[in-house]
Automatic annotation (TrEMBL):
<keyword id="KW-0406">Ion transport</keyword>
<feature type="transmembrane region" description="Helical">
    <location>
        <begin position="138"/>
        <end position="156"/>
    </location>
</feature>
<feature type="transmembrane region" description="Helical">
    <location>
        <begin position="20"/>
        <end position="40"/>
    </location>
</feature>
<feature type="transmembrane region" description="Helical">
    <location>
        <begin position="197"/>
        <end position="222"/>
    </location>
</feature>
<keyword id="KW-1133">Transmembrane helix</keyword>
<dbReference type="InterPro" id="IPR048279">
    <property type="entry name" value="MdtK-like"/>
</dbReference>
<dbReference type="GO" id="GO:0042910">
    <property type="term" value="F:xenobiotic transmembrane transporter activity"/>
</dbReference>
<dbReference type="InterPro" id="IPR002528">
    <property type="entry name" value="MATE_fam"/>
</dbReference>
<keyword id="KW-0812">Transmembrane</keyword>
<feature type="transmembrane region" description="Helical">
    <location>
        <begin position="52"/>
        <end position="81"/>
    </location>
</feature>
<feature type="transmembrane region" description="Helical">
    <location>
        <begin position="393"/>
        <end position="414"/>
    </location>
</feature>
<keyword id="KW-0050">Antiport</keyword>
<dbReference type="Pfam" id="PF01554">
    <property type="entry name" value="MatE"/>
</dbReference>
<feature type="transmembrane region" description="Helical">
    <location>
        <begin position="287"/>
        <end position="310"/>
    </location>
</feature>
<dbReference type="GO" id="GO:0015297">
    <property type="term" value="F:antiporter activity"/>
</dbReference>
<feature type="transmembrane region" description="Helical">
    <location>
        <begin position="426"/>
        <end position="445"/>
    </location>
</feature>
<dbReference type="GO" id="GO:0005886">
    <property type="term" value="C:plasma membrane"/>
</dbReference>
Length: 473
């Protein structure tokens, strides 16, 4: 397999803070652009009426869970690539990249078949009514057909992140977001020879941009000018390597799925207090989700830097990287929290206007939780460092403890057994964020996770005997 024609600089030297910011910035912008996809779809679908909006909304949890599976395996690909890129084993980097794509696309094909034919059963299980069933099924099935392309681009972004290239995926996201804005009304309402497809048209617009993203991404990988160079023969299955990637990816998939399910259970608690509290929770949690995007960016950047430094057998720099990430994330989210607190009212009114009761309660919710966001930054950075070291199981456990052992029980108790009432839901965010930051910190400071031997064992095997490197060639 050919080496990249342009060798990217390693992230194992130079300013750690600069490297973190250089990586995290485009990742944060990319996440914001993904939010833009949702806003664009909501803008155009909203003009079809309430039934169309509901048909799209009921499909979101299922689609989110499926994407969580793909995101988990993309984490594994990114970590394995970064560790071996740090060791400058470029043949193995290329081999891992190809096998990661084989693994995730195979998974996507299986999920596509099962989800497509199981779509009606899924909607019945959710309890979708007959008034929106047909539209929801049409929308959902088109999205399911796009899983291969969705997963493919997730892996492309992860592989690029592993070698420190985060600008190209950002540029692709910018172009496809603009294209999605143009295709949405074309496919939804029709024009000329293009028939009106309603909500299914919104899904088709999304899938069309995903196809374009993957095609561009594959061209980038095959040209080999951005740190990874693939060849078509490199896609011959290597089951030993895919087993390693699968072992790393499963905990990350469970991690993301547990987080999504935990938020769904919080929605169930909010529902018990009526429509006003449910609407309040929906708006407030959306604002908080936007607020933690910087922490997610720093966490992913931390994973890449830690993995590259461990691959280069530089555990001291990996440890210092984690410290920098924790401090940076805490500081950024402290500033974001202060800004969210000050701008709570206009932020809430951006998502809702005309209901003063919901607006008042949502502003209170946002202000109660805003200054605990910085503690979320600590947990996210520790989890990022653990993933970079290949310890995706520990990162998964932190998420499960935070969502299921802490937040949900605390929210249930405070809202049902104290005078706080529904406000106990808001305070559960504060309790969970602070306690999880402490637990993550204790896990981190007890040490051991950044020892050189915790770096990818595939690299050690390749150094000793060269079999994987031979396969890559």
């Amino acid at each position: 397999m050919p080496a990249p024609t342009t060798l990217r600089p390693s992230l194992t030297q130079g300013s750690i803070l600069k490297a973190l910011l250089t990586l995290a910035g485009p990742i944060v912008l990319g996440n914001l652009l993904q939010t833009g996809y949702q806003l664009v779809d909501a803008f155009w679908v909203g003009r079809l009426g309430a039934d169309a909006v509901a048909a799209v909304a009921v499909s979101f949890p299922v689609n989110f869970l499926l994407i969580a599976l793909g995101s988990g395996f993309s984490v594994a690909g990114s970590v394995l690539v970064a560790q071996n890129f740090g060791a400058r084993n470029l043949a193995l980097v290329n081999h891992i990249a190809a096998q990661s794509l084989v693994l995730i696309l195979s998974l996507a094909l299986l999920l596509t078949v099962g989800a497509y034919f199981g779509s009606p059963a899924i909607l019945h299980l959710i309890g979708v009514g007959p008034d929106i069933f047909a539209e929801a099924n049409a929308f959902q099935r088109v999205l399911f057909l796009g899983l291969v392309f969705n997963f493919g681009f997730l892996m492309f972004q992860a592989l690029m992140r592993g070698v420190g290239e985060v600008r190209i995926p950002l540029y692709i996201n910018i172009v496809t977001l603009g294209l999605n804005f143009l295709l949405d009304p074309l496919f939804i309402y029709g024009w000329g020879p293009v028939p009106a497809m309603g909500v299914a048209g919104a899904a088709l617009a999304t899938v069309s941009t995903q196809i374009l993203s993957v095609l561009v991404g594959m061209v980038v990988l095959l040209r080999g000018k951005s740190g990874i160079a693939l060849s078509f023969r490199g896609f011959r299955p290597d089951f030993a390597l895919m087993k390693r990637a699968f072992t790393l990816g499963v905990p990350s998939s469970i991690d993301l799925s547990a987080r999504a399910l935990g938020m769904s259970m919080m929605t169930v608690l909010a529902t018990g207090f009526g429509t006003t509290v449910l609407a309040t929770y929906g708006i407030g949690s959306r604002i908080l989700a936007l607020g933690i995007i910087p922490a997610l960016g720093v966490s992913l950047a931390c994973s890449t830097l830690v993995a590259q430094n461990l691959g280069a057998r530089n555990p001291d720099r990996a440890l210092r990287t984690a410290y920098y990430a924790i401090g940076l994330s805490f500081t950024l989210l402290l500033v974001v929290g202060a800004a969210v607190y000050a701008a709570a009212d206009p932020l809430v009114r951006f998502f809702l206007s005309g209901d003063e009761a919901v607006t008042r309660d949502a502003v209170e919710f946002v202000r109660i939780t805003s200054f605990s966001l910085c503690f979320t930054g600590v947990q996210q950075s520790v989890s990022g460092a653990l993933r970079g070291a290949g310890n995706t199981l520990a990162a998964m456990l932190l998420t499960i403890i935070g969502a299921w052992v802490l937040q949900f029980p605390v929210a249930w108790y405070l809202s049902s057994h104290t005078s706080l009432g529904f406000r106990g839901l808001w305070w559960s965010f504060v309790v969970a964020n602070v306690v999880m930051a402490i637990l993550a910190g204790l896990w981190f400071w007890r040490g051991g996770w950044h020892r050189p031997e915790l770096a990818d064992p595939l690299q050690s095997e390749a150094d000793a005997t060269g079999p994987l490197a031979d396969k890559a060639g």
